[in-house]
Amino acid sequence: MNLTNQALWAELKFKVLESALMLQDGYSDNEVIGKLMEVVEILNNTEPKGD
Question: Mind listing the pLDDT tens digit of every residue in the chain (51 residues)?
Answer without folding.
Answer: 799 889 999 999 999 999 999 999 999 999 999 999 999 999 999 877 665
